[in-house]
């Protein structure tokens, strides 16, 4: 029968394929597993890169916060020195007032019968600096201000654990290490922000303390200028005679 050989060969090839000899689906399964592993590795590398970028960004934020704190400290020192300078200037104004009063008495007594009696025009008394006499209870920040700045809450508790050694040879270990680094830097950033809040309140208190003293000094200086101009006019009239 000429068909026996063809049928027998067809049966043999079918059995081989069923028994795994040259099964094309086995190769496809291996390629799929390799593709999945490669995709997972690519995702892990991408996650690690993004985590490193986040760490770099947080580090920059911490550096900016530290620089801002340095500027705030210098500003607070300068503002404090300004308050001392205002107080010294006002004390000098008091000395000028005393010398000017003696000069005004002398100018008033000069001229004799050829001149009218002269008295300086005084609108207010020079009382001297008032910065040191400021009421500290009125200058302190109110509870509402502290609550608005988040200064009444409890300090943030430090994160416990999670800072151990990690296997840097694996991507997962590197991710864990980056996460711990980010947590530590975020704690530093939170501490810096809290300190800047306290510093801002100190600046506010110092400005409120100095503002009335500056206004008071301005009024006294204006009064002294008016009296000096009056004394100059009196002296010029005496010289003409």
Automatic annotation (TrEMBL):
Record keyword Transport present: yes
Domain of life: Eukaryota
Acidic residues composition-biased segments: 1-10
Biased composition, class Basic and acidic residues, residue ranges: 134-148
Disordered: annotated span: 1-33, 121-170
Keywords: Membrane, Protein transport, Transport
T-SNARE coiled-coil homology domain span: 176-238
Keyword Transport: yes
Subcellular location: Membrane
Coiled-coil intervals, chain numbering: none
Family indicated by similarity: Belongs to the SNAP-25 family.
Name under which the protein is recorded: t-SNARE coiled-coil homology domain-containing protein
Organism listed in the record: Sphagnum jensenii
């Amino acid at each position: 029968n000429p068909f026996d050989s063809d049928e027998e060969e067809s049966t043999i090839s079918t059995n081989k394929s069923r028994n795994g000899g040259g099964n094309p689906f086995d190769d496809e399964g291996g390629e799929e597993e390799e593709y999945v592993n490669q995709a997972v590795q690519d995702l892990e590398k991408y996650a690690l890169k993004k985590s490193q970028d986040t760490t770099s960004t947080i580090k920059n934020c911490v550096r900016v916060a530290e620089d801002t704190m340095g500027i705030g400290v210098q500003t607070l020192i300068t503002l404090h020195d300004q308050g001392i300078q205002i107080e010294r200037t006002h004390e000098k104004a008091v000395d000028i007032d005393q010398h000017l009063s003696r000069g005004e008495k002398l100018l008033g007594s000069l001229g004799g019968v050829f001149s009218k009696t002269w008295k300086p025009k005084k609108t207010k008394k020079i009382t001297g600096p008032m910065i040191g006499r400021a009421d500290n209870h009125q200058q302190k920040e109110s509870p509402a201000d502290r609550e608005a700045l988040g200064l009444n809450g409890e300090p943030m508790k430090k994160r416990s654990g999670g800072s151990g050694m990690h296997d840097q040879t694996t991507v997962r270990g590197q991710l864990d290490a980056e996460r711990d680094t980010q947590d530590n830097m975020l704690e530093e950033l939170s501490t810096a922000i809290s300190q800047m809040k306290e510093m801002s309140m100190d600046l506010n208190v110092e400005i409120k303390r100095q503002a009335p003293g500056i206004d008071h000094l301005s009024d006294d200086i204006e009064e002294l200028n008016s009296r000096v101009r009056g004394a100059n006019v009196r002296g010029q009239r005496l010289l003409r005679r």
